[in-house]
Amino acid sequence: MNLLVIGTGYVGLVTGACLADMGHHVICLDIDAEKIAALLSGIVPIYEPGLEEIVERNVAAGRLKFSTDYPSSVKHANVCFIAVPTPSLEDGSCNLSYVLAAAKSIAEAMTEPMIIVTKSTVPVGTSKKIRETVAAYTTLPFDIVSNPEFLKEGAAVVDCMKPDRIILGVESSHAAQMMKEIYSAFTINHDRILIMDNASAEMTKYVANAMLAARISFMNEMAGLCEQLGANIKHVRIGIGSDQRIGYHFLYAGAGYGGSCFPKDIRALQAMALAVDYDTPLLHAVDTVNERQKKVLVKKIKKHFDSVANKTIAVWGLTFKPDTDDLREAPAITLIEELLALGAILRLYDPIAMEKAQKILTHPNITWCRDEYHAAEGSHAIALVTEWKQFRFADLDQIAESMQGKVFFDGRNQYKKDEMRAKGFHYFGIGV
Ligand SMILES: NC(=O)c1ccc[n+]([C@@H]2O[C@H](COP(=O)([O-])OP(=O)(O)OC[C@H]3O[C@@H](n4cnc5c(N)ncnc54)[C@H](O)[C@@H]3O)[C@@H](O)[C@H]2O)c1
Q1: Which of 4, 10, 80 has most ligand 1 atoms within 8 Å of CB, for mutation?
Q2: Which tens digits make up the pLDDT trace of 157-168?
Q3: 188 confidence band (pLDDT: 50, 70, 90)
Q4: Choice among 18, 80, 94, 261 that is catalytic
Q5: What residue owns the CA closest to ligand 1's atom 33?
Q6: What are the tens digits of pLDDT across the range 11-20?
Q7: Is the CB of residue 417 less than 8 Å from the CB of residue 217?
Q8: Is 303 exposed, middle or buried (0-12, 13-18, 19+ CB in 10 A)?
Q9: Which residue, among 73, 145, 82, 146, has the nearest Cα to 110 in the 3D structure?
Q10: pLDDT at 190
Q11: What confidence tens digit (pLDDT) does each residue in 226-261 have?
């Protein structure tokens, strides 16, 4: 089928490349001319494991093209996917201006009936707003489908190729049929398509993210309590996870969640509730606990050192999670800003996001390092914030040798307290 994907970010580019890999003819469109120029010259502007190969393969096969031009791209397609940002407004509600701008551009360029699919995470009721926007600019028939995306950054290609489920909020059987056909190659093994109304599809995405964020905040709150009461959250996780109703997944205590989805989606869901005068104390708590948790490392650092001013601290990992270059709302950024405000000297390292980080963090007290060993050199303490695999088996003897102090703040519980203490480190984990 001929498809158009609007927005070539983490969702759009991955979706477009995977759809092309399944044999569809896809144009990925973006208003960011630099991004499209990079893609046209063979550079994939984001880091996602496996993405470069799949883009390269499908460009070479002629199934994947890039454009900034709405009229020719819309003319090419029977189905348009919208995968543009939906950031927070000041009050926490969702900013729909990018989505509605894309809808307007599609409508203005339409020359034939169209199926318009929303992949962006949008508040309940957005499909109606898209319908009104499109109807204002064309008299041609069209369908609106809500098809929220569930991929995880760092595993986006795998998630897209083998989705747990594909949610389709539809208004017509024609749209449902077309969408089933598009996704048929992804569901050969067993049917994972769930058809529902638009509002429920839109809501499903927010509820999924709220549930995941709640699990994290719950474990972080319990980790703090474990520290006070002398228990170990790692043991507790195994203890509760063995109950099949609870399970082991997504129950890790750490330095808080970040990224481009959980924080803004929790806020948007709260705003949706507020708009209908419905109290959501649980959502409020999830967000509040996370804001506190993002400061838990700086609190531990302040408690350990009499003064943080002029202490050299190595920060391992800057992205909000491993295997991505995404720094949006990353707990490491909060930590770095707090430490700089306290006068610390920072040695920063991330395996993938150094270039992106250098664009948003500029301070004379920052040294950008080659690797985790280089970052540790001469430092009083290490703060591990992102659990990149390469940090897990670092040569700690070599690292300890090169440091000024031997203090390790483990924001992701990657190391064992006893082993670290045996190596002479002052070790501080989360809830251990
Ligand atoms: N990143 C994730 O892990 C993830 C997962 C699931 C859902 N989502 C949702 O998907 C949506 C997109 O997220 P993302 O992380 O891919 O965003 P992103 O910021 O990485 O990319 C969005 C792209 O859209 C482009 N764009 C903006 N307005 C446009 C327009 N009018 N026409 C064409 N292009 C336009 C931007 O230039 C940018 O390249 C958001 O609603 C997000 O909540 C994201």
Answers
A1: 10
A2: 999 999 999 999
A3: confident
A4: 261
A5: 30
A6: 999 999 999 9
A7: no
A8: exposed
A9: 73
A10: 80
A11: 999 999 999 999 999 999 999 999 999 999 999 999
SS3 per residue for the chain? CEEEEECCCHHHHHHHHHHHHCCCEEEEECCCHHHHHHHHCCCCCCCCCCHHHHHHHHHHCCCEEEECCHHHHHHHCCEEEECCCCCECCCCCECCHHHHHHHHHHHHHCCCCEEEEECCCCCCCHHHHHHHHHHCCCCCCEEEEECCCCCCCCCHHHHHHCCCCEEEECCCHHHHHHHHHHHHHHHCCCCCEEEECHHHHHHHHHHHHHHHHHHHHHHHHHHHHHHHHCCCHHHHHHHHHCCCCCCCCCCCCCCCCCCCCHHHHHHHHHHHHHHCCCCCHHHHHHHHHHHHHCCHHHHHHHHHCCCCCCCEEEEECCCCCCCCCCCCCCHHHHHHHHHHHCCCEEEEECCCCHHHHHHHCCCCCEEECCCHHHHHCCCCEEEECCCCHHHHCCCHHHHHHHCCCCEEEECCCCCCHHHHHHCCCEEECCCC
Q: Which two tokens stand for residue 397?
A: 């003897």
Tell me the pTM: 0.96
Name the band, by pLDDT with cuts 50, 70 and 90, for residue 367.
very high
How many residues can be counted in the chain? 432
List the structure tokens of 99.
């989505």
Task: Please choose from 28, 30, 326 the residue to mutate so as to test ligand 1's pocket, defined by most ligand atoms within 8 A of CB.
Answer: 30
